[in-house]
Hints:
It contains 9 helices and no strands. With 195 residues, the chain is mainly α. The chain is 74% helix and 0% strand. The radius of gyration is 19 Å and the shape is elongated. It has helices spanning 3-23, 30-37, 41-47, 51-72, 81-96, 105-112, 120-142, 148-169, 174-191. It folds into 2 domains: 1-48, Homeodomain-like (Arc Repressor Mutant, subunit A), CATH 1.10.10.60; 56-191, Tetracycline Repressor, domain 2 (Orthogonal Bundle).
Amino acid sequence: MARSGQKTKDTILTKAYVLFYREGFARVSMDAIAEAAGTTKRTLYYHFESKDALVAAVLDHQHIHAFARFKSWSNQASNTPEKVLADLFGNLEMWARSPRWLGSGFTRLTMELADLPGHPARRAAQQHKAAVEHWLAGELARVGVDDPDELAQQVMLLVEGCLSLMLIHNETGYAKIAASAAHQLIKAQAGQRPS
């Protein structure tokens, strides 16, 4: 693809994500995306065969940015599981305090497409969440957690619940509650170690 074609495609993906994030998949038309991207609907369909294909590509594209954000929250100086998880939930709380925060776009779009289990956007969201969980397991392994995969799954449940409840109640204090629950999981796992 020519350089200008890639630039156009990137602009479409970026503008479409903003619209999907703010308004939801169903309420955003291809006309609105073309207008926001400063292109024609014909150009939009040249790059993406359908709105379904576009939203999946948007999530694949957004994964790069969102995953980089999670990785940036990792403080390599953190040498305990408690510190790793305190950093994670502290950063989630700060993110939720940002202007116009509307929760996880991956989760919101998946919920909107709940009745379409084979939808390509749902697969893209699943891959993103799995990548975050895998990264978290790696961070927990780095600081010596005995079963980092299991703890990462448990923490991901807390992350998703935290994000949802912060959005529902417009209350970032849920991050501190989730961090406390994660701390209890660490203590419970440590208590199961053979002496």
